[in-house]
Specification:
Distance between the termini: 88 Å
Number of domains: 3
CATH superfamily of the largest domain: Ribonuclease H-like superfamily/Ribonuclease H
Order of helices and strands: HHHHHHEEEEHEE
CATH architecture of the largest domain: 2-Layer Sandwich
CATH class of the largest domain: Alpha Beta
């Protein structure tokens, strides 16, 4: 406030606006704003003003807010959209109708918004326990081990198949893609060499997760983590 008083005092003494603004380190626009306030309101205009916003978001006239709250209490099952429609019918043309989001904010401020309940744990989907192999060929585990760039600039996709009981690597072949046909050929060759396992376990990536992938290899009930090899 002291700086503004000194600023106005210099102008009253006849100094130029440009020179005084330059001396006080403010723009001419700010200088004229201070000067105009002083001329309109006197010394009170030089006091520090509250930084409290003139208007708050979602602030409504007390009568409108009271009507929203009373309507909600009379009709607990009504939401913000329906309450706003009531305001439109009752007050259209008289006042500005608040938006649906504003009506909702009023209801929330008064504790009239019901929160969605969290899903009960009993309703959550539960996974099934993975089967454990006891003997060789009880369970095979198939997977692609990422993408690798070869020396000639091409990419390959290593397909690995292991026996779960013996931990033996049955297949480790670099395929040109994860498409079905090369994978089918690799499995056919493997079946000829090792026979058929009781089940095959894989992740949900291609081509195993495709509904028609590998001739419905994954077409068993989705609750089962293993895939029946007899479907090939």
């Amino acid at each position: 406030m002291d700086e503004r008083v000194r600023f106005v005092g210099r102008l009253l003494e006849g100094d130029s606006m440009s020179g005084v603004c330059r001396e006080f380190g403010i723009s001419r626009k700010t200088g004229y704003k201070i000067w105009d306030r002083y001329r309109q309101e006197g010394m009170d205009a030089l006091c520090d003003r509250s930084r409290r916003p003139v208007r708050y978001a979602n602030q409504l006239p007390a009568q409108i807010e009271r009507l929203i709250v009373e309507t909600k209490r009379d009709k607990p099952h009504w939401g913000a959209r329906k309450i706003r429609e009531l305001l439109v019918r009752r007050l259209a043309g008289d006042v500005r109708i608040p938006a649906k989001s504003t009506v909702h904010a009023v209801l929330d401020r008064h504790g009239l918004v019901s929160r969605a309940r969290k899903r009960q744990a009993a309703n959550r989907a539960l996974g099934t326990q993975l089967s454990q192999a006891v003997l060789p060929n009880d369970l095979w585990c198939a997977d692609f081990k990422g993408e690798f760039k070869t020396g000639d600039g091409r990419y390959c996709y290593p397909l690995t198949v292991t026996d779960q009981a013996s931990r033996m690597i049955l297949c480790c072949e670099a395929l040109e893609s994860t498409r079905e046909q090369p994978v089918i050929e690799a499995f056919v060759q493997l079946f000829r060499e090792r026979g058929l396992p009781a089940a095959i376990r894989s992740d949900n990536g291609l081509p195993f997760a495709s509904p028609n992938g590998l001739y419905n290899l994954s077409g068993v009930p989705p609750v089962s983590p293993d895939m029946s090899a007899s479907l090939i």
